[in-house]
Prior knowledge:
Elements lengths: L5 H12 L3 H20 L7 H10 L4 H8 L4 H16 L6 H11 L11 H18 L6 H11 L3 H11 L1
Helix pairs in contact: 1-2, 1-3, 2-3, 2-7, 3-6, 3-7, 4-5, 5-6, 7-9, 8-9
Amino acid sequence: MVNIFEKEIIQKMKEYFGEDKKRINHALQVTDYARTLIKNSWNQDLNPEVIIYAAILHDIGIKQAEEKYNSTAGRFQEIEGPPIARRILNSFPISEEIINEVCEIIAHHHSPGKIDTYNFKLLYDADWLVNLPAEYDLTANRDKINNIIDRLYLTEVGKELASKLFN
C-alpha cells in the first residue's frame, strides 16, 4: 500500500530534518506502524493517504518549536507543524481536502479527544506504538501494561498490536 507521493513526502521530511536522524527515524517508524494498522483495520472510514501523510509529517513542527520556544512540548509542535506540513504538501497535486485533514491531525496529534476521526485515531495509535517503550515501564506486571494500553490507545486494532508487542 504505497501512496502516490509517500516516497516524495518522506524525502521532503528528510530534507527538512537534515542530519537529525532521531526525528527522521521516529517519523519512519510511526509511518511503518500506520501502514500496519491500516492493513489490519476493518474500518471503512479510513483514508490511507491522510494517515500516511500525517504519520510522515506529524512531528514536523518540533524543529521550529525548539527554535521559537526553546521547547519540544507537544502544544508547540501542534502550533508550528501545520504550516510547515501545508507547505510540503502543497508542493504536490494533493487535494485541499486531504491537506486540510492532515494539517488538522498534526495540529492535535498530542491532544486526543479534540478530533474524533478514525484517521486521527490510527495516527495517534501509531505514534504511541513507537513512544510507549520510552514513556512507560514495560517490565511492570501484565495487568498494569494492559491498563496502560486500554487507557492510551484509541482503536481496537491499535490495542491489539500494542498487546502483541508489549505483553
